[in-house]
TrEMBL record, chains A, B:
It comes from Streptomyces alboniger. This is Dienelactone hydrolase family protein. Gene3D superfamilies: alpha/beta hydrolase. It holds the Pfam family DLH. Transmembrane segments: none annotated. The lineage of its organism: Bacteria, Bacillati, Actinomycetota, Actinomycetes, Kitasatosporales. Belongs to the AB hydrolase superfamily.
Amino acid sequence: MTHTTHVTATTAITTRTVEYPADGLTMVGHLALPAGTDRRPAVLIGPEGPGLNDFQRRRADALAELGYVALAFDINGGRWFTDPQEMLAHTTPLLADPDRMRGIGHAALDVLLAEPRTDPDRIAGIGYGTGGAIVLELGRAGVDLRAIGTVNALLTGRPGEAARIRCPVWAGVGSEDPIMPPAQRDAFAAEMQAAGVDWRLVVYGGALHAFHHPRIDHEQTVLPGIGPHPLHAQRAWQDIVGLLAECVPVT
Amino acid sequence: MTHTTHVTATTAITTRTVEYPADGLTMVGHLALPAGTDRRPAVLIGPEGPGLNDFQRRRADALAELGYVALAFDINGGRWFTDPQEMLAHTTPLLADPDRMRGIGHAALDVLLAEPRTDPDRIAGIGYGTGGAIVLELGRAGVDLRAIGTVNALLTGRPGEAARIRCPVWAGVGSEDPIMPPAQRDAFAAEMQAAGVDWRLVVYGGALHAFHHPRIDHEQTVLPGIGPHPLHAQRAWQDIVGLLAECVPVT
């Protein structure tokens, strides 16, 4: 693992860019540490298919301000795809390959575990879209996460493997998301229920896919069915923060 | 309106039993007031079909401790049905008659509005089962509630009337509730979405009908499909408190 360190001090937190290998690429994650020197519960943050951007890096910072060690991890080798076709060409085969997803998740987890501030017994995973599917796959691989929270990531896994998930699962989705339609919600719920998982699903009325993400301002093509919903985005974030408070409270 | 007052002082709140007429009965509600003398946001709390019991009275007390004026209202004229058949004989025709439900809701609202501590511009309604259906009907009647939160109450209304709901609607339901099955969830969601309501639906995995209610200890017959889920019950309460914090914050 190579660490390229850029230390940025804000009011109380410290952030660091971390390079590490995964999926045949050099990933470029964003690690945020709360003030202090003690061990803290830690959170993996999985980004959307286009990749890790400042929006998810700021989520790591926000969690560090709440007292968590937080790693916004990378899935695309430092790239952020502005072309939806290029994004899909990368994520479609990835999402069909649980082992590749797990490899990306495990590499990110190793970065967290290498951080002395991380309490290895109190790690949660949250993620959005592709990054959410990756943290779910860590659960299905039997990784001892203490909570899994995902938005727009209702992908089912290989048969039977969800039974390895031993922590609460919280999932959010937009009611009008054409990429996660009602049949997919039902399939995800059925998988969790059959596996005996402690699960919840929040359907945000009127929200599209990627509703949690602010509108993308530059001249990027946006796929149909994608759009922001700032009010539900704020609620979904509060729901995630509540999940962490329940399962990995900062003491 | 007849007020029969029993004042009970706890650490900081004041509670009062309130009798008032509705639905041809004398209702016996439980009003809880926070410490102080100023106006506060106020909350209607609708009970389950069996009626108002101490469990929902304590919800009013808990909300008063958070700073709200809270009325746990009555739907059965002071009775709490221990016989499920007697309960169904009362609630089944009631749930089929929106005007009767609105009458019960309006009478409770009048009690809240008659309380000088109530800020009439900041009233929310929450409810469980039948009581949830009643607060939804107040919304469909065009009452200016600032939030509606219901658990196990996904009853649709008369066509088009949901468009009168102008506040956020939060609804929770158990995934295994046979009384509110997936088709009913879908119908409720479709009604809210078609009406342009700001809505959310939380599905609590593995929970049955009335999952929010503690197990009933005495020798009451319990209908099939009903049972407690303490963990989700606590989450649903936190979700309701969060809805109130969003829509009618105590300032």
